[in-house]
Queue: 4 jobs
Job 1
Amino acid sequence: MHVDMNAFFASVEQRRHPEYRGKPVVVGADPKGGGGRGVVSTASYEARKFGIKSGMPISRAWQLCPKCIFVPVNFRLYLEVSARIMEILRKYADKFEQIGIDEAFLEVTEKARSMRVAQNIARIIKNEIREKEGLTCSVGIAPNKSVAKIASDFKKPDGLTVVAPDDVEKFLFPMPANSLWGVGRKTAKALEDMGIATIGDIVKAGPARLKARFGKAGLWFYETARGIDESEVVEEWEPKSVGREVTFERDTDDSNVVFIALEELAHDVHKEAVESKYRFRTVDIKVRYEDFQTHTHSKTLPFHTDSFDIFLGTAKALLEPFLYSEKKIRLIGVRVSNLSRGEKQKTLCGK
């Protein structure tokens, strides 16, 4: 079973502000009358009717719907709501795997010995989330994780789709190729260039052709397109990284402005990591120039640490080469990954 909250951030804002219900809501950066920087985080279904999508420049969203209600991201609130929803889901699962702030897999084989019982459990889950949190979710039920994830997206919002084992191919094959888990925008374009439009076309292409174009990922596409996925629901979910980024009000080549922004971002990232009791080993930097060319650079330390000094020093060293470009900087981001929990280890500076 895959459970996915519907337009989660926007739905939480509509719940918090009843006057927003039924209206187009965009969660993200301040549009500043069409001149804002940054991107759309989430758009309500009412806003999506205007063509607004997650990841779209906020200025473009304002052009499409200047009458939309634009609200800033309130990540702390969304985390609190998410935690309560995940506790609801967890009690109905034999095994539980959270894969994001607003979605999770539930293994329900022991609790539901048939698809009919699983469907009843899904209805109970949907009702409990609606009654306790005032939010809706979409649920997909299938023999494995990849098909269940596609099924949860089939009838949104507030959907419930059941795919029986004998109906997997009939369900999958007519679907667009980008419905397949792991097929993003670039991969979908590459498949289109190969004459592949549907999941059924992926199967027809065959494993050899797909592997030649996409490597091992091509074999994954072939297997999941046939409805084969033996990956298990993993009990414990941990975030892979903690990061922040900022888009400057104006493109800048002032190194002082960039370093000040980096330090502010680093403080936020470090605080979240430490409060979550994470140590990190890899530091990543992201830089986007005025022409939208984006570069990343990372360094993996020989140890795990929670030292802010080591984190900031590493981040500054990674960022510095990007400041010698003749192009102005539009965005910077910093992230820690390769996370671990456990006993505090010594670091090079003894902290």
Note: The chain is about 40% helix and 20% strand.
Job 2
Amino acid sequence: MAVYKRTYKTYSGPRTVPWSRFLILTRYSYSRLFQSKFIVLFLSACLFYPVGCLGFIYFSHNQELLALLSLGSAKFPAVDGRFFYTFCKIQGTLAYLLVALVGPGLISPDLANGAFPLYFSRPFSRTEYVAGKMALLVFLLSLITWVPGLVLYSVQGGLEGWDWTRDNLWLGGAIFFGLLLWIVILSLIALACSAWVKWKIAAGALVLAIFFAGAGFGAAVNNVLRTQYGGLISLNKIIYTIWGGLFRYDLGAELSLGQAWFVLALTCAICVWLLAKRIRPIEVIK
């Protein structure tokens, strides 16, 4: 439109509330994601184990059914810290497989198509951009991790009674905090890989390599050098050590809690630094 005609007008329609502006990216990413039938099927498969755990909790408290099956005197595993630690390990593994599928496609298309100037020419900060992309991963991973975990805890508390719930409040906090911590780590790693690798398939392979190759290399270091510090390279061992502390379950871990927390904080700092270096409104090509 020619400027001299002066027929243009400023936008006078409704505006998005500034604090929720980052959710625009989440909403559109969510709508594109669930067009994939494979993702929907994988999410459904991730709920099989929680449903099985729910059935076990109900079955172990149904005395009439146990008597009918002549299992009244059978001793079932206790629903305690060890039970929920195992739950976290299984659902945590499924969570990073899901991240490897979903995460690489969040930033790499914007980077490959030069979309950053379009985003940041609007009242939209880099922090809001990362938060919008990360919110999708947090939502998806929550559906298969701490949400069913707290459902299992609530059902167990309802069947056992108030005394059990009161004495095991720490267990509910461990489920929520431990799995939320894992979600944040996975999301930051996936976004950092997506920001630095433009090819989505390669970014997904890099996410898997960080965990599988890290665990293998750490084990090789331990065997060759006769040390235990190779576990510092394995994020799996790091998070297992932290979960063991939260659930008061002695793993005989090679690492101390202090070492595990330090490596986890360092990993988060590196991922944030990589995102800050890569996500810019302009790109200088030499």
Note: The chain has a mean pLDDT of 84.
Job 3
Amino acid sequence: MTDTTAQVKQQQEIQPKLDFLGFTRGQFESLLLELGEKPYRAPQIMKWLHHRWLDDINEMTDISMTLRSKLMELGEVHEPEVVSEKLSIDGTRKWLVKARSGSLFETVFIPEGPRGTLCVSSQVGCALDCSFCSTGKQGFNSNLTAGEIVGQVRLARKALAVEFPERQRVVTNVVLMGMGEPLLNLDNVLPAVEIMMDDLGYGISKRKVTISTAGVVPGIERLCEATDASLAISLHAPNDELRSQLVPINRKYPIEKLLEVCRRYATNLGEKRTITVEYTLIDKINDQPEHAEELVQLLDNFPCKINLIPFNPFKGSGYKRPSAVAVRAFQRRLVDAGFSTMVRTTRGEDIQAACGQLVGEVVDKTRRQEKYRRIAAGVI
């Protein structure tokens, strides 16, 4: 064996196989052409992966053995491994899932009548450090691949189909509001979203796939050219001073820039669709009448609907959930000003699956966990 051959062989052993769960229809068509195969095979392959949940490429019986062999040489079907599952008293489910990195992340399913919303993670941990979010305190490990993002939809549908065989499509909505900041992982989020909305994938309406962001302006600019999925922005404050305390990325991309690019994105959505503004209400921090009034002025003529989220407590946050009276008063001011405003019902709190509570088990590359341990111990 020559040195060159040995190097190629070693590289092949090091390089992981392609994960076909993260391949869009267009990517499959391009791969097939490169392999000297017909691109019409792409729909057949995608149906095996996303409609029949096949794990073994060799069992794709309507494509040739030759093509199956080529595919098996290049790639695999790598559904993320479920480590554990918890079921809330309200029916919410939380799966602890292992990433290729070895760290664990979480996926949450929230049933509501005939509707079922899957809250999907895009990163292991989070690179941002919003003060009211437990995920951010875990630090950051890595981006999830497109296959690992799509794989969460696949594993949820498979698991729920066993329990509810008469309702195969029980996951009707997907929100990228789990662990991580989706717009810091767009190279993987965009193909994953495309697969979710493709009829050959999971056939979920663009109205029912929502990408959430803490305000990564360049990412929203890129979304304008790439997708028309629904968009939610985590605002949480009506002015830059307060928002910079709660959402540190605001120091780089202040509210004016954020709303400006969101207006541009809203033109992709058509007249009957709007941006969702998420606002976590924290007792005595951003829930006062003057904050509601300021928010009304800020969002004047901004095409949006508003979701109010009563803060979900976690150990060491230092924050409290506002009273029901304060929440209703805040909502009433917004409704009186003409905004479509809903209060998000807290779900899965008994299993730490509520908004802002997801943590997983993150091998932290930012040393943020160490920082917060030192703060809690009074060292710094």
Note: Residues 146-163 form the longest helix (18 residues).
Job 4
Amino acid sequence: MTCKKLSYIPRNADAMIKNALREDIGRGDITTESIIPAHHLSSASLSAKEGFILAGLPFAERTFHLVDRGIKFRSLKREGSRVKRGEMLATVRGKTKSILMAERVMLNILQRMSGIATLTDNYVRQVRGYKARIVDTRKTVPGLRYFDKYAVRAGGGENHRFGLYDAILIKDNHIEAAGGISRAVKLARTKSGGEIRIEVETGTLAEVREALSSETDIIMLDNMPLERIQKAVKLIRKNNKAVTIEASGNVSLSNVRAIAQTGVDMISVGALTHSVRAADISLRIVPL
């Protein structure tokens, strides 16, 4: 999944947003319908209540338009930009009823995506000066993976495999079921015809050696203590400089720089998407 243009919206994003709207609106917004006349108009502003990296404005706009095509949405900030507390992000104008119906789903998407982008940016800044790239994982909210991974890119990170279908990653359970790393890699290479890069998860130096002998393309150093990562990197570089090295597991803002200093090529961080704090954003309307 590589999309340099962050404003790109795939077709399946509409389906994701529609599902969220159906979940929230259901048979109708009974509060708004009982209070707000159908012809009532308002303008509204989206504002930052804290500083963060902005991500998700195209999806916020799309959410409003899926509720009411007549709503006018104007972005005031660029995707991936750093915003300050109190800054206005966008303006909205249209039927009050429609704005209120879209509000919660729109904010849920925008706040989560901006939270992910902000956390990603924190990790990226920690490893600045080293070659290690910060990448995400498949630990995303079910049904929202595109949004989560888009937000990682907005924060300066990179996407690992999007799903089970676009990369071969042989993990511990695959190895156990196949009868070893060498056999698992051989089977995967035969099945793929050598056209897809193969990554193997390792937890010990012995497994790193076996992965090297099987001529895998990427070696993941999973849940290794820092000292073992250092030894593994030296071992890999000594035997095969072309192998890509990924560190994964128990990565935090407090240790990610030390991991980058070992010389790994990638550091995958599940926390970017599985336990992120949403950014604080508000929507305020003014009746016209």
Note: The chain has two domains: 11-124+277-287, 127-274.
